[in-house]
Design brief:
- The protein is α/β, with parallel strands linked by helices.
- It has one domain: 3-Layer(aba) Sandwich (Collagenase (Catalytic Domain)).
- 55% of the residues lie in helices and 13% in strands.
- It has eleven helices and six strands.
- The strands form two sheets. It has a four-stranded mixed sheet.
- β1, α5 and β2 form a beta-alpha-beta unit.
- α5 crosses α6, α7 packs across α9 and α9 packs across α10.
- The longest helix is centred in the N-terminal third of the chain and has 32 residues.
- The chain is globular.
- It comes from Inhella crocodyli.
- This is Zinc-dependent peptidase.
- GO terms for molecular function: aminopeptidase activity; metallopeptidase activity.
- It holds the Pfam family Peptidase_M90.
């Protein structure tokens, strides 16, 4: 009798583990099929002009991605900010741009998006002279945590969306970090299942990163990539992702190997978007 009960419990656990992904996939499919709310369309027209630059099929796909994202991710206001649908939709539209080619599980580690009214202050340890570790207060526009949170400044979310072709977008930046953090610590090398792809990525990104650092070392101002990308490989990937989604044609012209690597990873041709 006890053995039978254990077998039944085991079968139930197996059925749950097998059925959960199928149930989640079906639920997401149903969310994508729902009509996109008219109020959300108006928000996109007012707040996220980049959506109108996308081909019609990608606009439709983006809206479906947003419906899943908004159903699954919690938004929390911080610093006295009261989160509205306008905020949620504006963030979601930009956060889903990196998913247009490959959904990659809709940021599987992410559970919450925290919004501050503006730049927020954090304490970060740094190595002071003499080997002493001290806390340093820094004002940030955004931050991505591998534990399941993205933190954003609403004022900078608005600015990033309003100017869709300046290569600066805090939402894309932080959600690129989320993709990088799926495998663990962000290091500028998001997970790729094929070894040859990982090796090619490392070669291309390493070369582009080195070139940016060399440009800055000569005292020159980079023509396209933000100098912040020279901080480390993780920041370089996030900065390059901003440029890829906002200035694809310029990136393709000035850094062809870098553009091709990002286009392959993201599964879309942003240089063709007008």
């Amino acid at each position: 009798m006890a053995l039978t009960v254990l077998m039944l419990l085991g079968l139930a656990v197996v059925a749950f583990l097998v059925g959960q992904p199928l149930w989640r996939s079906h639920r997401r499919w149903r969310l994508r099929q729902q009509p996109f709310p008219l109020a959300w369309r108006r928000i996109l027209r007012r707040r996220v002009p980049q959506v109108a630059r996308l081909p019609a099929d990608l606009q439709l796909r983006l809206k479906g991605l947003m419906q899943v994202f908004l159903a699954e991710k919690a938004f929390i206001g911080c610093g006295g900010l009261v989160v509205t649908d306008e905020m949620r939709v504006t963030v979601a539209a930009q956060a889903c741009l990196p998913l247009l080619g490959h959904t990659r599980g809709y940021y599987p580690k992410l559970t919450q998006v925290l919004l501050y009214p503006g730049a927020f202050v954090v304490n970060r340890p740094f190595n002071a002279p003499g080997g002493v570790v001290q806390d340093q207060r820094r004002a940030l526009l955004g931050e991505s945590w591998g534990e399941g949170q993205v933190i954003l400044s609403w004022a900078d979310v608005v600015h990033g969306a309003a100017v869709p072709d300046d290569g600066r977008n805090v939402v894309v930046h932080e959600f690129a970090h989320q993709l990088d953090q799926v495998k663990g610590v962000a290091n500028g090398a998001p997970w790729m299942p094929v070894r040859r792809d990982r090796e090619h990525w490392a070669a291309v990104m390493g070369q582009a990163y080195a070139e940016l650092r060399q440009t800055l070392a000569r005292g020159e101002v980079p023509a396209l990539l933000d100098p912040y990308g020279a901080t480390d490989p993780a920041e370089f990937f996030a900065v390059a992702s901003e440029v890829f989604f906002e200035q694809g044609a310029a990136l393709q012209a000035q850094h062809p190997p870098l553009y091709r690597a990002l286009a392959t990873y993201y599964g879309c041709d942003s240089a063709a978007w007008l």
